[in-house]
Design a protein that fits this description.
single chain, alpha+beta, 2 domains, 4-stranded antiparallel β-sheet, 3 helices, 23% strand, elongated
């Protein structure tokens, strides 16, 4: 895991450094003589590298967080009393659709597929405005996500 993260940072950093050096060489030939000093080129390359590393770090954290959130949602459903009472003994639980995030909202909605003695379709909402995110069971439906009215709340059907 740590080696993978190391490679994920090291390889793009090397590629970006080479790209930055190439840009620095290209800029040096285009710029007028007074602007062709090495300090300016190094500053431009350093800025490109810093922005690229910050961008990669942000996206790596977002992917890692989303994966952990999905695992947490499935674990939550497997141990939830209401889901257990409606599905019986759970054989499998997986995310059917998710995370759906409405514009301007900090709540993600997951639609799950749970097979037990009976098949049910829980709807779970993750409130991301708290730290750590709060997982809440919205409802347990017997209607699959694709069969319900998309313009209505899945819990009201």
């Amino acid at each position: 895991m740590i080696f993978g993260v190391f490679l994920m940072v090291l390889i793009p950093y090397g590629v970006i450094s080479l790209a930055g050096a190439s840009v620095g060489v290209a800029i040096r030939g285009v710029l007028p003589a007074p602007l062709q000093n090495r300090v300016w080129n190094r500053s431009a390359i350093a800025l490109v590298v810093i922005v690229a590393i910050a961008h990669m770090s942000f996206h790596a954290n977002a992917r890692y967080g989303a994966k952990n959130e999905a695992v947490s949602v499935v674990d939550f459903v497997k141990t939830n009393n209401e889901v257990l009472s409606k599905a019986g003994s759970i054989k499998t639980a997986s995310i059917h659709v998710g995370p759906g995030i409405k514009k301007g909202s900090s709540t993600a909605e997951y639609h799950l597929y749970v097979v037990g003695d009976k098949t049910v379709f829980p709807v779970v909402r993750v409130l991301r405005n708290s730290s750590p995110p709060q997982i809440v069971l919205a409802c347990v439906s017997e209607i699959p996500y694709g069969k319900n009215d998309p313009f209505k709340d899945p819990c009201a059907q």
